[in-house]
Amino acid sequence: MTANTLAGGTFTLAGGLTVGRMGYGAMQLAGPGVFGPPADRDAAVAVLREAVELGVNHIDTADFYGPHVTNQIIREALHPYDGIVVVTKVGAVRDDQGAWVHQRSPEQLRAQVHDNLRNLGVDALDVVNLRVGGGDDGHSAVPGSIAEPFTALVEMQQEGLIKHLGISTVNAEQVAEAQSIAPVVCVQNAYNVAHREDDKLVESLAAQGIAYVPYFPLGGFSPLQSEVLNSVAARLGATPMAVALAWLLQRSPNILLIPGTSSVAHLRENVAAASLDLPADAIAELDAIA
């Protein structure tokens, strides 16, 4: 597979890995509810390969997608990952009914790291995010120390199982605590044009050269709905989702996008958003949504 130059530019993580700012989130490759296998495995493989053909070299995943299924599909489609950075996360598992269950003891995290290694077919993971929070909505930071689980990942990094570390679903205090223990190359939180509680954190991380990776960039399980967003999109001759992604790319140079889809057509639309240049008046309107 040969990757094309991708619009949107690149960002070099603090650990030295350079990725395109438009990446791909693999969550939707599993079955309904991110549980079980997809209805069409060949289509899932095709989406991943098309992403790389379009120039994407940042794939976001987790072994609890499926569970195991998504990583196995990524391995089938992309192994040995030449030039591709695969970022995964640990801190949760799925029970028999598909519920998301927190598991963050050192022993549990070690088992999850080995699950990722095995299902991705690698000896070391490029980046591992410790997913911490959850809260009532499932994606809010929950205050408290993250020293024990983060230190467990640092120990596995020292053993050579993990190359770089990140954290997910955290607040600014937890970011600082993790940084006091070991370098953090990325922070992955829920954030989009309509939900911007992390504005100050985005700016703080940008000043430090640390990537901010918004999950749910298009609203997640509740897609973004906004008359302003629709109006701006209509005026620019673009889709609302393309405008939402373009806004994030222009919001800050350290923002890396990982929109997910199980459709090649939607994938192409998402990637095309990296070429959309929003004029100042459109950005001002979009900024006001939050």
From TrEMBL:
Keywords: Oxidoreductase. The keyword NADP does not apply. CDD domains: AKR_AKR13B1 (cd19088). It holds the Pfam family Aldo_ket_red. SUPFAM superfamilies: NAD(P)-linked oxidoreductase (SSF51430). Gene3D superfamilies: NADP-dependent oxidoreductase domain (3.20.20.100). Residues 21-289 form the NADP-dependent oxidoreductase domain. Transmembrane segments: none annotated. This is Aldo/keto reductase family oxidoreductase. It comes from Amycolatopsis tucumanensis. The lineage of its organism: Bacteria, Bacillati, Actinomycetota, Actinomycetes, Pseudonocardiales.
